[in-house]
Design goal:
Elements lengths: L6 E3 L12 E3 L16 E2 L21 E3 L17 E3 L6 H17 L1 H9 L15 E5 L3 H10 L5 E6 L7 E2 L3 H4 L5 E4 L13 H6 L5 E4 L8 H8 L5 E4 L12 H4 L3 E3 L8 H19 L7 E2 L2
Parallel strand pairs: 1-2, 1-3, 3-4, 4-5, 6-7, 6-9, 7-8, 9-10, 10-11, 11-12
Antiparallel strand pairs: 5-13
Helix pairs in contact: 1-3
Length: 301
Amino acid sequence: MAMVHHVVWSQWPDLMVPEGFTRLSPENFPLESSDLSHITFYIPPYMTGNEYLGPIKKMTNLQFLQTPNAGYDNMIPYVRPGITLCNAKGVHNASTAELAVGMAIAMKRGFPDFIRAQEKGRWSHERMGSLNDSTIGIIGAGSIAQTMISYLTPYDVDIKVFSRSGSNGSLTMDKLDELLPTLDIVILILPLNAESKHLFNAKRLALLKDRAILINVARGGVVDTDALVAELNTGRISAALDVTDPEPLPASHPLWSAPNVLITPHVGGDSEAFEKRGMRFMEQQLQRLADGLAPLNVIEV
């Protein structure tokens, strides 16, 4: 078998690469001042913007574009013939599922209200809801959704999962509108595409039952932000959002001041758990190439 060689650029100077591969990082190969034509396998740094995507245009010999994210919609414009796009499906399962479940508990048990009372030095005893005895709808049936299910299983909850394909035993999306009024908590964890953009529009938000909680750990564009602000302002539902549209959310945006909303700044996958899982996955990908195998998580674009 012919020796495979790749020039790999990643954020990690200590990434383990197979014998014969070249490892590059910001420490020894800054993108802004180096000849990027050498790079054949590019891993843009996690949770960064277009400053690390623009250089792809100068990577004339690039063969693999490996996003460290599960989502990849922002990468598609940079894919050209000869480039294989892969995502990091599985890397963020633990962190994202953990945040979604934490948000569900926080909203049900009234943590945001208690924190505001604490800031004012006010002892404000109030009976809040409980995650237990809730009916939870998870929109999306991928690996993060499956991890959420495992995290939620010890609780006394009824879980309904929806997906376009009906995979992993999920319900198909044509059942969603019928069942939305029965759900206490709705968790969004599906890709953003033409079909899912504004999936939760004014009409669908209106189908949510009173006191329902909408949790978005997918992409901001899955929800119509203006419609959500309007619905939140009625006081009828609550929301916990790790992603928004627009993102970052401008300081003057009315979503910040809407009632019954908890906003986190897109930290779902970005926990201490990411670092070792991210590196381990990238090293696995590179070893597969060295062994003559196809990479995992190839995205058809």
